[in-house]
Amino acid sequence: MLFSTEPKTSLSELFDREMEIERFRMGINERLVLVLGLRRVGKSSLILSVLNSMGIDYVFIDVRKLFDEVSKKIPGERLYEELRIALSRMSLSERVRGVLSSINLSLGTVGVRLSMAEIRGTITSILEALNSLGRRIVLVFDEAQYLRYSTIGLRSILAYTYDHLSNITLVLTGSEVGLLHDFLGMDDPSSELYGRYYLSIELKPFTRDQSIEFLKRGFKELNVSVDDSIIVKAVDELDGIVGWLVYFGKLYLDRGVDAIYEVKEMGAKMVMREVEELFNRSQYYKYIMEAIATLGRARWVDVNRYVTAKVGRRPTNATLSRNLNNLIKMGFVIKNGDYYMIQDPMIRYAVIKVAT
Ligand SMILES: Nc1ncnc2c1ncn2[C@@H]1O[C@H](COP(=O)(O)OP(=O)(O)OP(=O)(O)O)[C@@H](O)[C@H]1O
Ligand SMILES: [Mg+2]
């Protein structure tokens, strides 16, 4: 069903994305694939649907979930535990189960703190055991830019996998595209992954026409007739991020046209924490985002004027451009010609809410 809120898991449920499906299929034979795009744009759906359609085994790790709010790190133990749980769900031969349990045993008594080196060694052994299965295994790290917080230097394990474990394909997703690139360091000679080839697939929000078509098809599937003008209004307000369109489709059945307003309210609430966290990091982020959100799209001079008025003095060009670039790296802002814009309408609404 198009309006189901879980990630889609089969190709028959996916709307559009033919090109991305084809590219991802090809990518399975590469060493490393990046699947990039805003939150709720459909990264997990693409990956799961294609892997299921090909009958390929995969391990799916949601890295964001492993982030520890107190230490602001991803503890090596959590990563290991998550890998272990993911493996327990896979169908593996007796031989590999045997190897894995002997690795587990080598970890020693529960409660004994493991050194980072031990955890690294164990994770590496698990990956080696998977590689020895002799068939393709896909290792997916969802929101992989968070791996930069890992306490065990995961990048070098990824590089080892890339170089030596040829049955494992690494798939990394990221909504904070610039940060993911920074973490991987493909262009940074000091990175273990320097110069490696990777296939990159970028999922863009649906165009206006695609979004309209998506809603029409979803309602048709449910045998609900909805006036074109309502569909157009919903797309105008909610834009092309499919996750928000799905919420609208579902809510419409209950609330009718008010669903547009409710999705905006709910969406703004859902992203509020992200926005607040961002604002806590720098007042410049706050004022820049406010300037762009209130104007809809803003040029450098507009942002500069707004920030100057709020801070009470003019920021240096270097400060403003550093902060703007960081916002672009984190995926909050895009630059289109001379204009800066906030990509996700829910983030825009949340910023306006905080500002007023
Ligand atoms: N091509 C598609 N056709 C139909 N529905 C889709 C498509 N892509 C995504 N969806 C729906 O949109 C919502 C968000 O999709 P998904 O969870 O795959 O996105 P994501 O980019 O992985 O998001 P997150 O940032 O939350 O991990 C889900 O309800 C999913 O079912
Ligand atoms: Mg996802």
UniProtKB/TrEMBL annotation:
GO molecular function: ATP binding
Pfam families reported in the protein's UniProt record: ATPase_2
InterPro entries associated with the record: ATPase_dom (IPR011579), P-loop_NTPase (IPR027417), WH-like_DNA-bd_sf (IPR036388), WH_DNA-bd_sf (IPR036390)
Domain ATPase: 14-246
Record protein name field: ATPase
Species this chain originates from: Caldivirga maquilingensis (strain ATCC 700844 / DSM 13496 / JCM 10307 / IC-167)
